[in-house]
Amino acid sequence: MPPTFLLPLAAAFLLLLLLHLHFPFASSQSYIGVNYGQVADNLPPPAATAKLLQSTAVQKVRLYGADPAIIRALANTGIGIVIGAANGDIPALASDPNSAGQWVNSNVLPFYPASSIVLVTVGNEVLLSGDQNLISQLLPAMQNVQNALNSASLGGKVKVSTVHSMSILGRSDPPSSGSFDSSHLDAMKALLQFQRGVGSPIAVNPYPFFAYQSDPRPETLAFCLFQPNAGRVDSGSGIKYMNMFDAQVDAVRSALNGIGFKDIDIMVAETGWPYKGDPNEVGASVENARAYNGNLIAHLRSMAGTPLMPGKSVDTYLFALYDEDLKPGPSSERSFGLFKPDLSMTYDVGLSKTSTTSQPGSPAAGQERWCVPKAGASDAQLQASLDYVCGQQGIDCGPLQPGGACFEPNTLASHAAYAMNLYFQRSDKRPWNCDFSQTAALSSNNPSK
Predict the structure, then answer these.
(1) S-S: 255 plus which of 178, 249, 364, 382, CB 3.0-4.6 Å?
(2) Catalytic residue among 219, 270, 287, 408, which?
């Protein structure tokens, strides 16, 4: 029996789940956002993008700047807008309150409230820059922008934050040991004290893709893609984590709690997975990108939250709306787009309003598929998959018990096939949910025959 203090959480979760089922496209999905980068020369017109976004479950858009054409195009759409002041703007914003006032007068007041600007991010990954002068100017810049918003009677309506790389953490594994890097600690405390006063979230950029690149094992890939895996037990808290996203976000939660900022909310400003990369960029593929983003969206919609923040979904901005073909660096940097410049989907993750209640990846009529173990899968791998599936809430493995309808043939391979296929069918038949650390595959042959 769960501890009594968890019962109200369980009741709240059930209520949220029921609300989600009744109102799948309303404010209940306000936690799904997308990044709209512009380092490209082939992007569609802002009006076309606004129409595209209205056809999806996306409720918020994050801009890295404050392009007036885009802000204007999003007017009266109900889509929340995050705008940004660039790192290069920080010195002027910090040194001169009038500069901050002019910035707000130019980038917020002409559009608000028709364009629903909800947050201004001052700088992007400033602490990662190592520029001590810029770092020292970040807080004064944020304060001046906030004061300018207050003067325009927008205090509390439009909030101010800044965006951090996950490298602000000195420790993140296990999540319970999460703590800020000592070299950033004083700056972080000052920023968080300001943000507590104005009620703005800490914004971070967790990327399980990079965690997988540093540990490219099949079990790590499954953990990163929200696919069946053995999980990872936090040696400090005893909590078993089933995916990397929750582990990374909870590491930030632990870091905040550890220095007395339990009341600061977390916002995921960027997360995504590239659909292609250079030969040395392991894991960059359409299949993996579809799995990560599709399963992340499903995880957010479940309202399960993370182990340290159960029953609610963290505001999460997917990276990215389009590819940015002018970005420097490896191929993956130009291959994160969920949509193409012609407005077609790069791959389907169930974001469009017509597909959120359908079954992305399900075959056409007459092309039924089943999830079965691959030849050569070891007994240990099959047992791990069997244990994973039968440990999931709502999954009934009773037919595999002695006397059950599917107990015979009483072999590990047959029982694993039943469990794998049951999980696949219960997961809306999404192809990426038939992986099981690369030990399963889709088949047109019904294993029950």
Answers:
(1) 178
(2) 270
